[in-house]
UniProtKB/TrEMBL annotation:
Cited Gene3D superfamilies: Immunoglobulins (2.60.40.10)
Provenance organism: Hymenobacter chitinivorans DSM 11115
SMART domains documented for this protein: FN3
Fibronectin type-III domain location: 258-347
UniProt protein name: Putative secreted protein (Por secretion system target)
Amino acid sequence: MQLTLLTAWRPRWRHVLPFVLSLLTTAASWAQVQTFPLRAYSFAASQGTYTPVPFVYETVQVKDITQDDNESRPFDIGFPFVFEGATYTRFVMDSNGWLSLTVGSATSSNNGFDLQGTRAYAPLFAPLWDDLHGRVGQAFFLTEGTAPNRVLTAEWRNWSWPRSAGDAQYPYSTISFQVKLYETTGVIQYCYRQEAGIPQTSELSATIGIRGNYLSFLSLSDASAAPTVSSTVSTNTINQRPATGQVYTFTPPTACPNPTSVTATATSQTTATVSFVPGANSPVSYKVQYFATSGNQSGTVTGTTSPVELTGLLPATTYQIMVFSTCSNGASSPGTQPAVYVTTLAPPNTNSSWTGAVSRAWDEPGNWSANLVPAATTNVLINATANQPIVTGRQVSGVVRLRPDATLTLTANSQLSASGYVSLPPGSSLVQAAGSTLAIGGYWNNNGATLTLDPTSTVSFWGSTPHDVGGGEPTTFQNLVVGDATPQDELNLTNAISVQHLLKTVQNSIVQVQTDGSLRLLDGAQVVRDADSFVAGSVTAEKLLPAAGRHFYAAPVRTATLAGLAAPGYAPVVNAAYNTSANPAAVVPYPTVFGFDQSRISTAVEPRADFETGFFSPTALTEVITPGLGYRLDTSTGALLAVTGPLNSSNITRSGLTRGTLPQSGYHLLGNPYPGVLDWDAVAGASTTTGLDAAIYTSQPNGTYRPYVNGIGAGRYVLPGQAFWVRVSAASTPASVTFTQAARYPDFFNAAAPPTTTEIRPLLQLSLAGATGPADEATVYFQPGATAGFDARFDATRLPTSGLPYLAWADAQPLAISGRPLLTDDDLTLPLTVGSPAAGTYSLTASRLLNLPPGTFAYLRDAQTGTNVNLAQQPTYSFTLGTTPTSTRFSVLLTRDTKLAVAPAALSKQVAVYPVPARNLAWLELPAALQSKPLQVALYNTLGQTVRTWNLPAAAQPHSLNLLGLAPGAYHLRLATSQGTVSKAVLVE
């Protein structure tokens, strides 16, 4: 039978023992709860008659919510209402169109949040959740009927939607709607009636659905007569009114019966087999929950049939076991009566001391007082002997204690797995070589040891009991791992702990920062977690700003403010005067913190200057840093930021991203909201990312922007603390992006050696560089689906810069990366825009030229000099360049014509053009190798324009070239020969 552990987080049991004992002592009543997960509720849309709440004696008018953004006091439902298996008796109504069964914990400022967000107060019923107002309306509720068939109707009557309805800009537009809760069936029903006025649809962005417990939800796609319902995509953009009489009904699933005859049989000191008789209705799976009555262990195992095996149990421990059925409709049974089971007693650990009598080898029996290599049940004491122990291979032990001045060494790729605690007194030393692992089943106690840990070494924790990382001295780990070996692990930090590279918590595990401890993620550290594992508590995250200049930053924590960015070498400064000044560069004090708002761009004069107007200064340092947004930080020197707060771990959505109509419009400065690495391909390809170009742009210390799109470029993986640019695809369609756990890189990301793939597409990457300073790049590649125009999935624009080399494909908009259709036999010319910050010598280099079809050549063409360079033979071409950008001088020609190849230098030297300078007539003298065939000869001016052509016959004597009428100046004569192109300078006076 295949067994899988459920991914439900196990709480810190030893700190909630009274709660656990309460669960166990009331297990009989607890077992009667029938679980109906929200995803198992069925949905139906129908047409009915809207019946307003009547004015009878029992009708209650809810006046609290006629105020804007207000929530009512709690009211009694009038009967016990069961939702997702839990029973509720009270509710609150909100002016923004929702009703919650959670009372006393919400504030009403929830406009624009969707059912997937953490600020929805579950259970929450949202018949029309938006920014509404009850200024001209009334709210009522009434419980009607007799037990057990009572019905609660809560009504928002003549409610203004949108909230601004009634303002001078918008006429009144109102709607009435109801929530109905049915006692016997547990059905939830929404009913609607259109009222006066027609709303401005551009002002509407409603959500209709249900938010359940455990982050579950059901969301309607629209307000039509036949919407779809989703448990994975929350829609908060509904801008149509439901029709009068429209009814939406959510019905809980049918019951799922318990299994019977539960028994537990021991198979070892730490394992047991649970058998049972399946219930009716053909359950599809079973869940076995077990609780140690001591409160120090619990777990859940699933299986598809009886029996189910339990592993990792504690010896000599009493457990209570319950079995639940899960039926095909998603419902779960209430759970069986607890079965009591006691595991057998484990033998006590033995003790052994290190003597080092033979050697330094851990696995040499003669080095131990017990004359045996330690087993998992052997508590060891390391004495400060002449031969100190060295661990090789895989070794085990129980407790590990070091004496002062003792040293424990783990060699490369070795592992020591200690089932007990590890104690390091003052003066002791722990050395871990590359790839080594110290796996600890108990706690860590560092009271002043010297730690020499290789950057790739790991300390991990495993086992079923909670672990503490404490002691009298702080500890810096290179890589700290929880839950890798055993699920549902718990690590409590009770001292100052720092992590240099990786903090990893997986398999339903948790790292808890206690009030007497702290956690610091040093610069470059990454947090890796799966969806059901967490780092809880306040964390300090460092980010190094290496030098003076502009830095683009995003915080991996929530609740931190802009003031919290202060660090030695950096003082955050804001000044709202910057945002309205006619000369913002002159405001005092000048801001050092900036956001970016593309709607501020109002000119189309010079690309860089236009783009710069999008920056603005926040108004106060008390502003909380927004997760998922990027900030520009200007520093006069290097600085080490250290922001503190809970780590971002839930989904982060940045919606309402817009684009103006100007050339530099539509860019948004976002950022990685997580303390782990973000995979942009996963973000861009997700269904929750809409309306954005697929490209991402990250800034570089040299002032350039590094583009990435569709596997091209080096910016796919976004490091913690990194902000980046994205662009909205169309001015008419707002965009949205959601950062999720699924988009995080699953392990430590080594930026120095990122994952690589073999490129199979035809590709040419050019770089432009001067003698010193940064280079710029432009890439073209070819694949099915791409077009000759701009493709949001395949292309990346060239962001404007200043004072740097400029290289882009000269398209309708300059492109740093251009995806194009597959090459054919036809020639393809791709013009380049080339610019420089100062006149001088520059070079264009084909840094990558890959996978061209056989017989296809890539030529760099210089129209000013008449030069054609075969980039496969000569990757670098040097030239002089002025300060005026040119889009006509350089181009790339992809062709199957071999005549454009440059002739050998020896042959070119034998071609002579005279006199120099020439007037009206010049003579062309050819070597014998070129006299036997006719030649095509062309003369070009410095703009690359053809000014004369000649078809010369085969001949041994020199050929005359008529120059009459040509303006004085420099020209280039180009001969197309069977051995390649010959280019000669011609000076006309």
